[in-house]
């Protein structure tokens, strides 16, 4: 399936940036063409992806869907279209993929699960996924917080199947690093946003090409220059006050929970003591 890859690289499926022209260009260029099917809400737009990709010879395409789609009534239309097209690859994310694994395997496809923790990887392997995508620190979307230096080798100790590595990969050195850690291919997103084929607005595309590391902010599609343009600088006082407020709020919640648990433990002890005393009096 992957013999036509010109590079061990996957274009990340991205909300707003994924587009039919980008997916087609990736297939033609020899890159695994990821596209974001979860955010395509109109059936005709979803069908346009499948029709356009079906007319192109090249590397496989992989559609990203939330795991819950297999159990939601609204997801049936998309799955029926994928089944009719015999989509070879599905990338599942956010949840238990068991039902989606069964559905994709039913039409002969393969399912890769996006994982951010070792526990999630173990549970995904247990339900029969065909591959894993290690979403590490620096990745977009539902980002992970584990460094690939530790996460990928740990996954390789329990999984010898297909493995994609994602998180902060922007050039050939990042791809080489992902392979050296044990990955089969690397996943890259931000670089593709700056391409002419991506689905973002022109200002976003130009900004993405002009900016560098410190301008990137993890979390959604936020940009520090965009925040400054709107008067929001999270590195200054208001952000510190907000963090302090959150810390104080969570501390109060923790204290309240501790008091609640102490009271509950005391009530249980009182009930056990009372039950024991009554039993003792009855037995006498």
Short description, anyone?
The protein is of the alpha/beta class and 284 residues long. 47% of the residues lie in helices and 14% in strands.
- What is the average of the pLDDT values? 83
Radius of gyration: 24 Å
Helix content: 40-55%
Contiguous uncertain segments of 5+ residues: 219-223, 237-243, 277-284
Q: Percent of residues in beta strands? A: 5-15%
Tell me the number of helical segments per DSSP (H or I, 4 or more residues long): 11
Class of secondary structure makeup? alpha/beta
What is the number of beta strands? 8
Overall 3D form: globular
Outline the structure in words.
- This protein is 47% helix and 14% strand.
- With 284 residues, the chain is α/β, with parallel strands linked by helices.
- Helix 1 runs parallel beside helix 2.
- The termini are far apart.
Question: How do the strands and helices of this protein lay out in sequence?
Answer:
Blueprint: E1 9-11, H1 20-29, E2 32-36, H2 43-54, E3 61-66, H3 76-84, E4 89-93, H4 98-106, E5 110-115, H5 118-126, E6 131-135, H6 148-156, E7 162-166, H7 172-181, E8 185-188, H8 190-193, H9 202-210, H10 224-229, H11 237-283
Parallel strand pairs: 1-2, 1-8, 2-3, 3-4, 4-5, 5-6, 6-7, 7-8
Helix pairs in contact: 1-2, 2-3
